[in-house]
Amino acid sequence: MVIKLPNAINVDELYEKLTKQFPDYDVSYIQKKVLLVKKSTTVGAMINLKKKNIKIFGDFGTVTARLIFTILILLLGVIIPLIVFLIVFMPKQNKFRDEIANFVKKEYNLQ
Questions:
Q1: What is the DSSP string of the chain?
Q2: Global pTM value
Q3: What is the spatial distance between Cα 88 and Cα 32, in angstroms, rounded to a whole number?
Q4: CATH 3.30.310 fits 2-106, yes or no
Q5: CB–CB of 65/42 below 8 Å?
Q6: How crowded is residue 11: how many other Cβ atoms within 10 Å of its Cβ?
Q7: What is the signed CA dihedral for 74, 75, 77, 80, rounded to 10 degrees?
Q8: Domain boundary assignment for the chain
Q9: pLDDT of the residue at 110
Q10: Which residues fall within 8 angstroms of residue 22, CB to CB, at 6 or more apart?
Q11: β-sheet bridge partners, residue 29
């Protein structure tokens, strides 16, 4: 999900607001302007801050889960892991992504 920004947002300020709003979730820095909000091992949201927009993606909560999924794709082919991902993981990740995106929109009065 891409959210347009009228002004740049400070990544440290967003980090603080997310940790206060969601104390049960683990918020961490992936890179300088990339945050990962983790609900569980398989459910998370990656927030990528740019100058003119924020990109929020549903993602696995840990690098290990991403790695295991990638290995399964290599071992089992694309079709079976993709079907499992679309049925089991993607709906939960998208719901969590929308929860984080709605908070960011509300907090910064964005569209």
A1: -EEE-SS---HHHHHHHHHHH-TTSEEEEEETTEEEEESSSS-EEEEEE-SSEEEEEEE-SSHHHHHHHHHHHHHH-SHHHHHHIIIIIHHHHHHHHHHHHHHHHHHTT--
A2: 0.91
A3: 31
A4: yes
A5: yes
A6: 16
A7: -120
A8: 2-106
A9: 85
A10: 37, 103
A11: 35
Instruction: Name the residue type at position 50.
Output: K
Give the pLDDT of residue 8.
87
- Residues 65, 44: Cα–Cα separation, whole Å: 11
At residue 32, the pLDDT reads: 94
Averaged pLDDT, groups of 10, the chain, 111 residues long: 91 96 96 96 96 94 94 95 95 97 93 72
The position carrying tokens 């290599």 is 74
Q: What is the pLDDT of residue 36?
A: 96
The per-residue pLDDT for 111 is: 72
